[in-house]
Amino acid sequence: MTAPADRTGVGTLTLRPLDPFPSSQLRSSRGDLITDTEMVHAWVTHPKAALWLPQHPTLPDIEREYMGIAASEHHHAFVGLHDGEPAFLMERYDPRYVKLVGLYEPEPGDVGLRLLVAPTDKPVHGFTRAVVTTVMEHLFADPRTHRVVVGPDVTDTAAHHLDESVGFVPEHAIDKPEKHALLSFCAREQFEAAGVREAVAARHPATALR
């Protein structure tokens, strides 16, 4: 599955379904053969991902989690590629059945989103914003999607600022089994308006300072 190519100059961003089966392997940046779940396990247990998944799961935990997602009709996982190389993890889910059941009142067209950019020692300026924009374009490419729902850790101010930059509006905090989360929403119109603001600021940087 392919997402729109990035247009911010950081490279081409695409999506493919995550394959949880151990028979499927890919070559890591070091040249080793690893599975998708081994790769994701390394990402989510990295210190930089502590706020995304604070429970320190084992590799079998990750394998069970993504086997379950692969079998679910309400939850889907994707590996994001940057110029063909794995660079982020994206999960799309139906909050009526997964993750947020009983924690808020879902509306028709709500889609839940979880997103993790792979930890790196060589960050690219603007990369995370490009990833979020690409993922949101992917979600809103489905005409049935009216609103995207996220729930980052309440202390993850970097995630909050990033979410707000693409149109998310924070609503209220909720207690999830794994963390205290800030529930935020972005309707299609809010995402489109954020894109217009960004385009105007890029063309007229002086205006953005007023």
Describe the structure.
This protein has 6 helices and 9 strands. A 7-stranded mixed β-sheet has the order 1-4-5-6-7-9-8, with helices on both faces. The protein is globular. It has helices at 36-44, 59-70, 127-140, 157-165, 188-203, 205-208, and strands at 13-17, 26-27, 33-34, 75-82, 85-93, 110-117, 147-150, 169-175, 180-187. Residues 2-6 have low confidence and may be disordered. The chain has 210 residues and is α+β, with helices and mostly antiparallel strands. Helix 1 (36-44) crosses helix 2.
Amount of helix? 25-40%
Give me the number of helical elements: 6
Which segments are poorly predicted (pLDDT under 50) over 5 or more consecutive residues? 2-6
- Mind summarizing the main beta sheet? 7 strands, mixed
Global structural class: alpha+beta
- Strand fraction band? 25-35%
Q: Tally of extended strands? A: 9
Radius of gyration, in Å, reads 17 Å
Mean pLDDT: 87
Overall spatial form: globular
**Terminal CA distance:** 41 Å
Element pattern in H and E: EEEHHEEEHEHEEHH
User: Which strand order spans the largest sheet, edge to edge or round the barrel?
Assistant: 1-4-5-6-7-9-8
